[in-house]
Amino acid sequence: MTLYGEKLPPADDRPTVKVTAVSWPDDEPEPAGAPAPGRPAWFRRGRVLLAGGFAAAVLVAGVGAGTWAYAGDVPRGTTVLGAELGGRSRADAARALRAELERRSAELNTPVKVTVGERSVELKPADIGLAVDVEATVAAAAAVDAHPVSRLVGSRTVDPVVALDTARLDAALRRVMGAQGREMTMPAIIFTGTTPKPVYPKPALTIDQAGAADAVKAAWLAAAPVTVPLMEKWPATTREEVDRLVAELAKPAVAAPVTLSTGQGSLTIPPSAIARGLRFSADEAGKLTPRIDVKRLRTALGERLAKIEVAPRDAGLTISGGKPKVVPGRPGRQLDPATFGPALLAVLPKADGRTVTAELTPAEPELNEAKLAELGIKERVSTFTTRFPGGLSSPRSQNIVQAAKDVDGTIVQPGETFSLNAHTGERGYDQGYQDAPTIVNGKLVPGVGGGVSQFTTTLFNASYYAGLEDVEHKPHSFYFSRYPAVIESTIYWPDLDFKFRNNTKYGVLIDTSYTASTITVSIWSTKIYDSVKTEYGPRRDITQPKTVYLKPGPDCISAAGSVGFAQDAYRVIKQNGKVVKREKFSWRYAPEPRFICGPDPAG
Question: Which ranges carry the YoaR-like putative peptidoglycan binding domain (predicted)?
Fold first, then answer.
């Protein structure tokens, strides 16, 4: 075939790719099917094919670059701690990061110097769980949202995800803080008789746990020291709010009696019972909330309430013939605490209309005979006795006996924490306690409930030698020879408490008994330890007491004084012939001054 006298190549019957012609700068429009003057058709077709080939080359290059840029799970150019993770799968990136961490192991295992207040310590990373979380770090690197262009030519650094055991760090920092810190004084309102007394909140001086954790993580990665400041942490309830609760609720509550009306009759709730049942409880944040403790109110009302309701009785145990004997429980009909408590609380601020209508509902015992049998209380596992002078007629002895009666027969369930303050409540005149010497601000003064510390020490030792978990106790400021050194405890409402936890799978029965000169507490359960003994370290830092002369009078109590010293005691618990626990208890006794009620002879 010829065109304008030129011979064309034979037609090609192979499939062709349809491309769009590219307009070159010197192209001019021409009629369809007409060649441009002076230019053969093959020249124009060649240009079209050239343009198509160029576009295809660009397309292939783009596809190749995109494939390169998006290779792997982690965007290219991504580094962590200097290790290149970009373009890798997650598994390969994790291996690369672990290799880098291994290379830096000496650096990453270097202790972190931490200063808390005025004290410093070097913390080993392993001791507080400091480590790079490899999997989380790779996941963070893979999640980087990189722009397609930056995937080709960009770079980015991803911070490692650091793991830290905050509980172990907090414990370590608190050891460093030591006496520099102070516990929060929780707000409270307590009644002495029918007089409400405010306990104003005071801030804790402590460590900001979250801030400290972040600071230690950053310091570890930067190989730099860190200072953790002490901060004040205030309770949620302010002094002003305590005063408002006193004025708007506590005082009006006990200003007049309340009439309780039920279908079985009516009775009068006197202010003294209201004071016993109205509680102001602070939560962990220090928020003070009023509530009615129906159980305490019921105890305060005594025979009054017994005329209209029948209390359920838990199944219990008594010790008879050296063995526990079951005392069957029984159901009852009582005021419903869920409705009666809020209804009574609602009328207490009022001067008039102080009447509460309530219904009695069936009440089942919390502990029935079947549940009691499952607790495995079958043998005595510990017993402890202390002696007291003065016979049973002295006020101090009467307080000891009253506390023993309050606690006798108590059953502590597995996992339950026993609190002596929570069990007895405030130990006042209405509860059968009397004035007796007690330690306040370093000297003996008359105080209601004096002597209960001796019962507390006896109970503490019984729980201690039963192998039960010590939750809270505080030894006396001064050493008294009637108690074992270090292994003893005082108590003071509401600030000092004694608590233990039943950390066994069996129930625990507290059995108390007394004579004219002794108080005994025994723990009954199922014996799980071979023995529980105390090993003492030597006394050290012995200091002699000074002599203090006091103004004679009815409030002056003389004391012979005692030396001060520090000592360690170790609870050694054996099971199956092996030592399974060795706990250290330490205390420093101040020298008790020799108080003399009289003038100083030296003038």
Answer: 249-356
Contact 446/435 with Cβ under 8 angstroms? yes
Domain limits of the chain?
2-69, 105-235, 240-374, 380-603
pTM exceeding the 0.70 threshold for the entire prediction: no
- Digit-coded pLDDT (tens) for 222-267: 899 999 988 999 999 999 999 999 999 999 999 999 999 998 889 9
Task: Categorize the per-residue pLDDT at 6 as very low, low, confident or very high, splitting at 50, 70 and 90.
Answer: very low
- What one-letter code names the amino acid at 232? E
Strands (E), 38-155: 78-80, 83-84, 112-116, 119-123, 131-132
Rounded Cα distance, 289 and 245, in Å? 9
298, 307 in Cβ contact below 8 A? no
Query: Residues 473, 474, 476, 479: is their CA dihedral positive or negative?
Result: positive
Q: Residue 539 is encoded by which pair of tokens?
A: 């006394």
Can you count the helices (H) and strands (E) in the chain?
A: 17, 38
Rounded Cα distance between 444 and 490, Å, is 14
Q: Which CATH class is domain 240-374?
A: alpha beta
pLDDT digits (tens, 9 = 90+) for 105-164: 998 999 999 999 889 999 999 999 999 999 999 999 888 765 454 455 568 899 999 999
| HSE-up (13 A, CA, CB side) for residue 55 | 12
Confidence of residue 555 (pLDDT cuts 50, 70, 90): confident
- Under DSSP, the state recorded for 584 is E
Long-range CB contacts (within 8 A, 24+) of 573-580? 573/467, 573/529, 573/531, 573/532, 574/529, 574/530, 574/531, 574/532, 575/528, 575/529, 575/530, 576/530, 577/530, 580/529
CA-to-CA dists, residue 520 to 223, 278, 285, 412, 492, angstroms: 58, 33, 38, 18, 21
DSSP string, 400-419: HHHHHHHHTT-EE-TTPEEE
Report phi then psi at 107, rounded to 5: -65, -45
